[in-house]
Amino acid sequence: MASPSAHAAIIDGKAFAAGLVTRITTAAARLRASHGLTPGLAVVIVGDDPASQIYVRNKGERTSAAGMRSDTHRLEETTTQADLLALIASLNADSGIHGILVQLPLPPHIDASAVLDAIDPDKDVDGFHVVNAGRLAVGLPGLVPCTPLGSVMLLKDTLGDLSGLHAVIVGRSNIVGKPMAQLLLAESCTVTVAHSRTRDLPTLCRTADILVAAVGRPEMIRGDWIKPGATIIDVGINRVPSADPVKAAEGRTRVVGDVALAEASEVAAHITPVPGGVGPMTIACLLANTYTAACRSAGIEPETLDA
Ligand SMILES: Nc1nc(=O)c2c([nH]1)NC[C@@H]1CN(c3ccc(C(=O)N[C@@H](CCC(=O)O)C(=O)O)cc3)C=[N+]21
Ligand SMILES: [Mg+2]
């Protein structure tokens, strides 16, 4: 199998996410028919960063397309922390809103962790609240961050049972690296979390059966860092100049991951592409968390969303 021309199977996150969204849409329609309950998501964005505006519009459209209520709150860059906290308090109190997402990054004059921790943990569909981080760490039901949740769904769909596999996670953020470590521990992986101070990162990565790249450095992880037959989850979404110098000179860009995809594909057994891998799963899991939060708010057991 491991011939020099061996080529990894691409993990089609876009297709898996589309299937998941279909299952969520069906489950949400049944929730409305049986209990008169329509899941509602509020997205809050502060300032007018163009990339953030695109993500937020996308989230709103996807939420509506899944038959859920979608409210977007666009606030000025100069909004005070007190005004933002007041909006969150009103969303916490709104019984028609089951999920609240505050788009990150926030402007520098706002303390992001104070804002995230003001969200009702049971409406925290990003899973960023300290209570949800704690629930995940001790194995209590809660809301799990969307990118790690979607990544583990792809891993289980690709590999089945993950128990005993060595997972190396490169990146220790509260948003991806740390919750990913908790989820993979819960799947009985042996988990190593690496970061910028890790010594001899290539050698460590070569011991990984599952390699998760979440560092935000374009194509940092090279083909010779990868164990033959490994499964690679590339969480990076990095905008870099177009590969075509003429287009690059015109300011055109392309999106690449944290893994050098072409090189890695020669060594790995399975790999998520960028785009079309983890990113679409993040949005699908946001809808899944909104559906789950709506069910729990009414004491209803959510339907399984498994494939
Ligand atoms: N509170 C909060 N929660 C978030 O989940 C959050 C956030 N703030 N701030 C910004 C980041 C970014 N993010 C993405 C989600 C999906 C794609 C996605 O679907 N990307 C596509 C297209 C990539 C492209 O071409 O640009 C893909 O990977 O295939 C990208 C980025 C969620 N974020
Ligand atoms: Mg992707």
From TrEMBL:
InterPro entries: Aminoacid_DH-like_N_sf, NAD(P)-bd_dom_sf, THF_DH/CycHdrlase, THF_DH/CycHdrlase_cat_dom, THF_DH/CycHdrlase_CS, THF_DH/CycHdrlase_NAD-bd_dom. SUPFAM superfamilies: Aminoacid dehydrogenase-like, N-terminal domain, NAD(P)-binding Rossmann-fold domains. The gene is folD. Keywords: Amino-acid biosynthesis, Histidine biosynthesis, Hydrolase, Methionine biosynthesis, Multifunctional enzyme, NADP, One-carbon metabolism, Oxidoreductase, Purine biosynthesis. Homodimer. Pathway: One-carbon metabolism; tetrahydrofolate interconversion. It comes from Brevundimonas variabilis. It holds the Pfam family THF_DHG_CYH_C. Belongs to the tetrahydrofolate dehydrogenase/cyclohydrolase family. This is Bifunctional protein FolD. One of its GO terms (cellular component) is cytosol. Residues 145-296 form the Tetrahydrofolate dehydrogenase/cyclohydrolase NAD(P)-binding domain. Catalyzes the oxidation of 5,10-methylenetetrahydrofolate to 5,10-methenyltetrahydrofolate and then the hydrolysis of 5,10-methenyltetrahydrofolate to 10-formyltetrahydrofolate. Its EC number is 1.5.1.5, 3.5.4.9. One of its GO terms (biological process) is L-histidine biosynthetic process. It catalyses: (6R)-5,10-methylene-5,6,7,8-tetrahydrofolate + NADP(+) = (6R)-5,10-methenyltetrahydrofolate + NADPH; (6R)-5,10-methenyltetrahydrofolate + H2O = (6R)-10-formyltetrahydrofolate + H(+). NADP(+) binds at residues 171-173, 237. Residues 11-126 form the Tetrahydrofolate dehydrogenase/cyclohydrolase catalytic domain. The keyword Membrane does not apply.
